[in-house]
Amino acid sequence: MSIALRPRNEEPLSEINTTPLIDVMLVLLVMLIITLPASTNTLDYPLPRPSPDVVLDKVSNTVAITPGDRITWNGQSVSEPELRGTLAQAVALKPEPEILVAPDGSASYEESARVLRLVKLSGARNIGFVGNDRYRKFGS
Predict the structure, then answer these.
(1) Which of 18, 39, 89, 108 stands 20 to 30 A from 7 (CA)?
(2) Alpha helices for 36-136 (secondary structure H)
(3) Number of neighbouring beta carbons within 10 Å of residue 60
(4) Backbone torsions φ then ψ of 55, nearest 5 degrees
(5) Among candidate residues 82, 48, 47, 45, the one with its CA nearest the CA of residue 63
(6) CATH architecture for the domain at 60-132
(7) Which whole-number Å values give the CA distances from 44 to 24, 41, 49, 50, in the listed order?
(8) In whole angstroms, what is the distance from residue 27 CA to residue 35 CA?
(9) Residues 80 and 114: beta-carbon distance below 8 Å
(10) All structural domains of the chain with their residue ranges
């Protein structure tokens, strides 16, 4: 009969056998899967259907800045105070229309920034920019 003797240096073993731990975890996982009931209970809830007489129109208005730093609202020339009033009226509408900002490439930066500030101060939440794809290549 042979007996394994431990060496004299009395160092603790640094290896832990994790196989039994993994086996126990797999058994518990299988038991959990078996005991959980399949979710066969469903709730049929009738979703509302849109009536054919309701028409959803997305209203949008365009604020453009021309090369001569002229501001236009849907093609009509307006001054800054008129634009401020028009924006206030547009923001008060329900549902709020989309405001599209379309500065020309030749318009001055100062006028474009002033118009953007007016749009921001109006409280508009639906703001879009038109024509940005024209400026994707510089120098052409």
Answers:
(1) 18
(2) 80-92, 109-121
(3) 14
(4) -115, 120
(5) 82
(6) 2-Layer Sandwich (3.30)
(7) 40, 10, 15, 19
(8) 12
(9) yes
(10) 60-132
Q: What is the pLDDT of residues 52-107, one digit of tens each?
A: 654 445 688 999 999 999 999 999 999 999 999 999 998 888 888 899 999 988 88
Report the distance separating Cα 47 and Cα 131, nearest Å: 39
Task: Count CB atoms within 10 A of the CB of residue 63.
Answer: 25
Q: What residues are paired with 101 via a beta bridge?
A: 63, 129
And the tokens for 21? 């731990």
Model confidence over 100-135: pLDDT tens digits?
999 988 888 899 999 999 999 999 999 988 887 776
CB burial of 87-110 (b: ≥16 within 10 Å; e: otherwise) equals beebbeeeeebbbbbbbbeebeee
pTM of the model: 0.55
Q: Which residue has the tokens 């002229």?
A: 70
CA distance 67 to 65: 7
Tokens of 68: 């001569």
pLDDT above 90: residue 2: no
| pLDDT above 90: percentage of residues in the chain | 39
Tell me the backbone φ, ψ of residue 98, rounded to 5 degrees.
Answer: -80, 135
